[in-house]
Design goal:
The protein is of the alpha/beta class. The longest helix is centred in the N-terminal third of the chain and has 21 residues. Helices cover 30% and strands 26% of the residues.
Length: 391
């Protein structure tokens, strides 16, 4: 058996080439057929058992048994594979070959790190069984939920139920070699809201003869912000953002209806329930005050990412990287949360900035690219977490 440091060093060029290949061939959620094929190829070459065609067809689950005993505990490690519908503007030589699609959130790096961990762990002593969860469609498609529904943590594929799961996400606010994690809520509930406003159409020059749903929708947008500032404890957190407003067909026509689409982000279930109740009251009240009617759809999306406090302690004890002070929760959503509903879970940030850098392109920006210097850090962290003693 070789040592971890030498394995990672020997694999660096291979993983860099692999990451850039994945970056050049981005695939959106549930379309990751080529990416899934690359994962299966790499696992097969490393001698790692795997089950494919999960979560609608592109999910892959790898498995390495313990080298010590059959009834060993099982650690699951997770990576997401999908890209985003964004036109790339990085200017790198391996830019996306697919117009309108790019890896703007680092999932190419996440996938490569987990492949690298599988390649290394296949050559190391393993006190634990290890599951490698390669999931599709994190970006809004709830691929993590579908992987759970396919029993990847329950032992349906390999007869080894997971005892814990770790996941990472690259983070532009940290430097390479730095990791960060917090116990409790790490990321927000991410819900979608749709408001349909029904008025009375007419001529734009004679607004008194109609009921303008665009005016009503505009008042709803403004009134909803008072929920955040006046209904929520200032020490709690809520975001209500409307990203779409549609209505009308011409500049001189008052339409019959308008529609708002937005998102609500909260950290606590009580605040999530408050948002739903108060939005219903505001939408109905504002519409009624203007003589219109309205309908609110509040679609519960990803639940909050919750890090098990005991597992966070284990992370800090064994990860072996520069652990930064506990970060504040982030109001973004992540479907890693679904795994935490089944087993103790720990999600952590992986730094991307090079030494001397003070800023980095943001996630979901067309200028974003994963820093390959972070690959060995991620592989090392995942391997240490997979082989840490349990119990």
């Amino acid at each position: 058996m070789k040592d971890l440091a030498s394995l990672i060093e020997a694999d660096q060029r291979h993983l860099e080439a692999l990451r850039r290949d994945l970056h050049q061939h981005p695939e959106l959620g549930y379309e990751e057929h080529r990416t899934s094929g690359v994962v299966r190829r790499e696992l097969e070459r490393a001698g790692v058992q795997f089950a494919a065609d999960l979560a609608g067809g592109t999910g892959v689950l790898g498995f390495l048994p313990s080298t010590r005993h059959e009834d060993a505990p099982t650690v699951a490690l997770r990576a997401d594979m999908d890209a985003l519908p964004i036109e790339e503007r990085t200017g790198v030589g391996y830019s996306s070959d697919h117009p309108g699609k790019m890896h703007a959130c680092g999932h190419d790096g996440h996938t490569t790190i987990l492949i690298g961990a599988a390649r290394a762990l296949a050559q190391l002593e393993r006190p634990n069984n290890v599951l490698f969860v390669f999931q599709p469609a994190e970006e809004g498609g709830a691929g993590g939920k579908r992987m759970c529904e396919d029993g990847v943590l329950e032992g349906r594929q390999f007869g080894r139920a997971a005892d814990r799961i770790f996941g990472l996400h690259c983070f532009p606010g940290l430097h390479v070699g730095e990791v960060s994690c917090r116990a409790g809520t790490m990321m927000a509930n991410a819900d979608t809201i749709r408001v349909k406003v029904y008025g009375k159409g007419g001529h734009a020059a004679m607004p008194h003869t109609g009921i303008d749903p665009i005016v009503v929708a505009s008042h709803i947008v403004v009134a909803a912000q008072a929920i955040v500032s006046r209904s929520v404890d200032p020490l709690d957190a809520m975001v209500i953002t409307f990203g779409q407003i549609t209505g009308g067909t011409a500049h001189n026509i008052i339409p019959e209806h308008a529609e708002l689409v937005g998102t609500v982000r909260t950290l606590r279930p009580e605040t999530r329930a408050l948002a739903e109740r108060r939005l219903q009251e505001v939408v109905q009240g504002v519409a009624q005050a203007h003589g219109a009617s309205a309908h609110l759809e509040f679609d519960h999306g990803y639940p909050a990412v919750y890090n098990d406090p005991d597992l966070v302690d284990e992370f800090r004890k064994h990860v072996g990287e520069r652990i930064m002070p506990d970060p504040l929760p982030v109001m973004g959503g992540e479907d890693f949360s679904f795994y935490g509903q089944h087993v103790p879970a720990c999600f952590y940030w992986l730094g991307l900035m090079s030494e001397g850098q003070t800023s980095y392109p943001n996630l979901h920006a067309p200028e974003f690219d994963f820093n390959d210097a972070a690959l060995p850090v991620g592989v090392r962290a995942m391997c240490r977490l997979a082989t840490a003693p349990i119990g």
